[in-house]
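[Meeting: bench + compute handoff]

Bench side (C.D.) handed over the final construct sequence. Compute side (W.E.) agreed to return the predicted structure before the next meeting so the bench team could plan truncations. Sequence as handed over:
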Amino acid sequence: MSIEPRKSSKKWRRKLHEVIYEADTPAGKTFDVILLIVIIISLILVMLESVPKLGERYEDEFIIAEWVITIFFSIEYVLRIISINKPTKYIFSFYGIIDFLSTIPLYLTFFFGGLNALIAVRSLRLLRVFRILKVTRYIGEAEKLSKAIRASAPKIAVFLFAVLVVSIIMGTLMYLVEGPESGFISIPVSIYWCIVTLTTVGFGDIAPVTPLGQFLATLIMIMGYGIIAVPTGIVSAEFTHGSKNNQADSSSEKATEYRHVNTQVCQNCLANKHQDDASFCHKCGYSLDVN
């Protein structure tokens, strides 16, 4: 007699899991869209509440709206936990921690005041939009860019070291040429000015006044344009090189993998990136059938 309730409970949890975790199903997509809308509304309310006139005039309305949204997120968080077989997998996952941090700020106001602004951490939940837009199809390209950046790291590190040496030399020269009376009160301050000028930021808090100092500043500004372009060129070259190698070595199997990977999430271990026609989890072997 206890078998039927167990089956019913298991089926109910699977259906709940399908709605909350799956973006491939109509119900899952609808849930995610509603969730994103609520997150955006919550962020807008936090921003509006920070405006003094609006915050004072509509204080009660803001508080009520925040509590309604917080309760919604709290229920969603609990449902996410009970709809999977291993709750700790979700609780200590990246999204699980973000969901928890976006839920507790308003509750903490009972014990600590002035924490309402922490609700803005909910903006991190907008990362869930990737599941709705199915950007997993771009995983391959993102991985290429990541590899290009890693491959460029040693060259960029050497380049930045060279820029630092140039900044120290030019900063020291500017200190000797301009001196404290022009605002270059020390070598570290002069190096700071050089870096600001070299990166074309130009705060304008310090400026050379002597002809020689202005000439050196002009050289630094011109160098700045080239310095900005170098890291971009290094990464672009590595990316192009990696793309050519991938085109030469890529197989139809790998292309199919990125083309047909979906956002289905295993109820048991929360693994994703399953094939469209997969019936079992590729990580733990748990059934993906929700019927």
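W.E. noted at the follow-up: Confidence is low (pLDDT under 50) at residues 251-261. C.D. will use this when planning the next construct.
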